[in-house]
Structures are given as structure tokens and as C-alpha cells.
Amino acid sequence: MEIIEYEEYDKKDQLIDCLKVCEWGAGKFLAKLIIEKSFEKILGKDGKVFFLMDDEKVVAFLTLTQKDCIDDTNLFPWIGFVYTDVVYRGKRYSERLIQHALKVAKEEGYSKVYLATDHVGLYEKYGFEYVENRMDVWDEDSRIYIINI
């Protein structure tokens, strides 16, 4: 298995197709942001989408961006859109991607990374610490986590 970055992959259409048929609505939304070229406008400059690939099959994906669903420009960067295909769950593949994103963030000079979710107990096992709940841009309650890198 290998981790690839969307912008550096030569078969971008394959990745978009995977996002478009993703069972998770946020995957479809991510595809829409990329297709409509609004990814940067919504999530900030220099954002990245990482995919964990099993040959040419997408196993998992996530983003590393300046913005996320919490409207606070003082908090950045964010790991978001964390998803693992149903067939591959339970093998900590999302952890591999998260560790990769944290490494990239550190290389870019960041000392902490944020994550917003409605999951309880998932990201704590990867080293994230709960900060607080806030309303997200869709007026839904979201848990904010932080990890120092």
C-alpha cells in the first residue's frame, strides 16, 4: 500500500470517481469541491488530499488544509474528510494517513494540527486531545481536537 497526494497523481479521474461514489456524503462533497475548483476557496490555499492506495484501489483518504468546518481563522491546519472504505476498516489505515498528514504538517513548520468530528473515542487513540465543542458551518455540534507534533 502507498500514500499518494491528489495533485501528484497522474490518474486524478480515478480518484474523483472514487469520491463521487463514496457511501459517505462528505466524500461526494469533497469530489464536488475538487471538480468545481472551489477546494482552495472553501478550505484555503495549499490544501492537500491524501489517498491510501492498494494498487489502484482507494483504501482511505483525508485532507490537510488551512480551513475546515469550524469557522475560526486562528485554528490551522486541519485534518479533515477522514474516511476508510468499509472493506478496509478495523486495520488502522486511517491512522497511517493521519500520521502521514502530521509528518507533512510538521515539515511545513506547524507544531499542532486540529480535527473536527462528531466521533467520540476514535481520534483519542491516535493522540488527539479533545478541546471543546463548537457549532460548525452547517450549524451542527462538532468536537474539536488538537494534537501537538
Give a summary of the structure in a few sentences.
This protein has 149 residues and is of the alpha+beta class. It has helices at residues 12-20, 25-35, 39-43, 93-107; strands at residues 2-5, 48-54, 57-65, 78-84, 112-117, 129-135, 141-148.
Plain-language structure description:
There is one protein chain. The protein has a single domain (2-148), classed as 3-Layer(aba) Sandwich (Aminopeptidase). It is 27% helix and 32% strand. It has helices spanning 12-20, 25-35, 39-43, 93-107; strands at residues 2-5, 48-54, 57-65, 78-84, 112-117, 129-135, 141-148. It has a 7-stranded mixed sheet with strand order 1-2-3-4-5-7-6, sandwiched between helices. Helix 1 packs across helix 2. The mean pLDDT is 95. Residues 1-149 form the N-acetyltransferase domain. This is GNAT family N-acetyltransferase. One of its GO terms (molecular function) is acyltransferase activity, transferring groups other than amino-acyl groups.
Q: What keyword list fits this structure?
A:
7 strands, 149 residues, GNAT family N-acetyltransferase, 27% helix, acyltransferase activity, transferring groups other than amino-acyl groups, GNAT_dom, 4 helices, Acyl_CoA_acyltransferase, globular, 7-stranded mixed sheet, alpha+beta
